[in-house]
């Protein structure tokens, strides 16, 4: 099926219009006309080959919301006209222990990413910076929100990537929870942790984000470059979620954890963080962990949780022709707080072609 999208052809040139084929709709498939696609920092890392694993051409985009155009004969959970979502995965082996537990993101054969193909190599896949997508029904999400679908799109990655660790590390009402970085992931982390009843402290390198962080649900804001502000929180956190997309000094945050508490990294910089100071870990039995998106069942749980709590992303809508400028602004931490592509703008390229 002829599809129009935007692709990076190599690490150095801007994304530009690109035509490709989607597979025909199979018995278990759902075909979705894409209405909106969020812009994740992982899209930029991939388009520019910052993780050294990009298959070109690369069509990024894994925060997809759209309208169902067609369904295969075995599909009963979705019908034509439904609003549906697709996140970071479109397939997994479905038989390993991780898949059996609903943790497809940790599939032991490697899940198939919505773009950039199987994580451990293989054929390329093309993501949501395009007019439609064809996905196995097991990887299609129901959208419980009744409107504002552009602002729902970022939940499909930024939402689940922050919700999953907050659940896994059992954040409870009254817990003191730190969120590091107020970008796409961070602002969802603040909203979701606050909705879980936590006392949220936002750490930022951008003092001008203070008011926004309070509005989004943080109880306190700390400018992480200010050692006195940091020291005031020593040994006090039950959990810290670190979303920063660049290498930085982790010790400054590890020292803020209580005994036995955990800091979980979800940011995935292109080069390593300096190794943490071991004494900070061993003298308080502190833990440093990581977390990858979330499974399909948990993604549905997150979408339903966000709908019940009235949570969506704070977005700046852009036409797809603005994607390259959006990437430059993302690199300057200048996004409030997620760019979302209005896919109707692709028509301008279709008519120009
Ligand atoms: P983003 O919107 O660019 O936000 C990142 C935030 O980190 C910035 O807004 C900024 O917040 C802070 N920051 C940036 N550079 C910094 C630096 N040099 N030092 C300190 N803080 C800095 O990116 P995103 O889309 O939220 O993604 C964040 C990271 O998570 C990316 O690496 C992405 O690839 C990764 N990711 C991981 C998963 C997963 O499953 N683990 C899923 C999705 C994305 P302040 O201005 O507030 O300091
Ligand atoms: Zn993402």
Average pLDDT over all residues: 96
Count of DSSP H/I helices: 12
> Helicity level, as a percent range?
10-25%
* Envelope shape: globular
Description:
By secondary structure, the chain is of the alpha/beta class. The protein has 2 domains: 2-156 and 313-352, Medium-chain alcohol dehydrogenases, catalytic domain (Quinone Oxidoreductase, Chain A, domain 1, Alpha-Beta Complex); 159-290, Rossmann fold (3-Layer(aba) Sandwich). 25% of the residues lie in helices and 25% in strands. It has 12 helices and 17 strands. The protein has helices spanning 41-47, 97-100, 149-152, 158-168, 184-195, 210-216, 227-231, 251-254, 278-282, 296-308, 323-331, 346-352; strands at residues 2-7, 16-21, 29-38, 64-71, 83-86, 89-91, 112-113, 132-136, 141-142, 176-180, 199-204, 220-223, 237-242, 257-265, 287-290, 315-319, 338-342. Strands 3, 4, 5, 8, 9, 16 and 17 form a 7-stranded mixed beta sheet that branches. Strand 10 (176-180), helix 5 (184-195) and strand 11 (199-204) form a beta-alpha-beta unit. Helix 4 packs across helix 5 (184-195). It is globular. The two termini are 17 Å apart. The structure holds NADP nicotinamide-adenine-dinucleotide phosphate (NAP) and zinc ion. NADP nicotinamide-adenine-dinucleotide phosphate binds at residues 40-42, 45, 157, 161, 181-186, 204-206, 209, 243-246, 248, 266-269, 291-293, 330, 333, 335.
Give the topology.
Layout: E1 2-7, E2 16-21, E3 29-38, H1 41-47, E4 64-71, E5 83-86, E6 89-91, H2 97-100, E7 112-113, E8 132-136, E9 141-142, H3 149-152, H4 158-168, E10 176-180, H5 184-195, E11 199-204, H6 210-216, E12 220-223, H7 227-231, E13 237-242, H8 251-254, E14 257-265, H9 278-282, E15 287-290, H10 296-308, E16 315-319, H11 323-331, E17 338-342, H12 346-352
Parallel strand pairs: 10-11, 10-13, 11-12, 13-14, 14-15, 16-17
Antiparallel strand pairs: 1-2, 3-4, 3-8, 3-17, 4-5, 5-9, 6-7
Helix pairs in contact: 4-5, 4-10
Bound molecules: NADP nicotinamide-adenine-dinucleotide phosphate (NAP) and zinc ion.
